[in-house]
Prior knowledge:
This protein is of the alpha+beta class. The chain is built from seven helices and 23 strands.
Amino acid sequence: MIKISLKGRFCAVCGEKEGPFLDNMCENCYKKENPLEIKIIPSLDIEICPTCGTIFVSGAHIDTWSREENLEEIIREISKSKILEKTNVDFSYNSEFEDDIEESKIMNYGVKEFTMITTLTAKPYKEFGEFRKEGKTRLKMVRQGCDDCSKYKSGYFEAILQVRGENRKLTEKEEEEIENLIEKMMKQYEDARLAYVLDLKVDNDGITANVSTKFLAETIAREIKNFTAGKLTVAYEHKTTSKDGAEVYTNTYLVRLPEFAVSDIIEYENQLWQVKNVNENQVKMENLENHNLKNIDRKRVENRAKKRSDEIILREYMLVSKENETVTIMAMDNYENFDDNLERIPPKKKDGEILKGFLLEEKNYYVE
Ligand SMILES: [Zn+2]
Ligand SMILES: [Zn+2]
């Protein structure tokens, strides 16, 4: 029986007697037989759009940082992670980098090159010592307008956003609130790709805008719908031609605001009310005969109520005095005094206070 003591071992390839050994080979021979395939990429193209600042590395865009960050640091981090990503290694290693990237030169006209030196250290075999690999990567910076920016310049859009009132115009307040809402949303999308609103128009029809993508248009439309308790419908595939002549199939996202707007004066069950709030299912309204608030089914109100806002004559009054259930009122336009019922006056009004209201069919109403 042959016993191979540790002392008696030698490399099967070169005969080396000094260990350590792996698969009966010394470190040198083992590494020659099983070379570690580590290739550090020799060059990396980095394109930067001078308009939007988006960075593209080997064709794919990278926009996972906030634009306030230092560009030099961003380019450095992107390069490092791209180099490691392209270095196909299936064991754990440490990496170190050295580079000559300079913030002030990154956006220079023409092609600007920097160099990054990558050093990888690893100990893939516990029997053998540490392994070290160094590689140089040329980082080529190119200023190049991106597709999205050229689309924006050419007026490209995939969707139309429309906001309309149901059988009515939008109120000024609604116009303002919806415009603010769109503006606020677009702030969130400032750094997003291909996210823009073109030709926002506010006119007698309502609000109309061209929106870069269907996704963005739908997102904005849903937000407006929720905010206004409106209804959203989508019409598909209206073909339009963008400014550069390309034909695009656009969707139209239409939000219809409720028939009755907040502060509308409506007639419902032979009484006058002011609309206070409208949600998906209910209308909250104030009875102008006694200032009680009521939530009423929205469909019911929309079917039975009639809008009277357009027929009223705005008027101001002064509450002169109160006596029991009777108040004396003075109309501010002709100083005429008359009596009315206390419950018709908004609650908590004091003598001498001005009331805002209106005249409809020769009857006075007090709103606030
Ligand atoms: Zn050997
Ligand atoms: Zn761009």
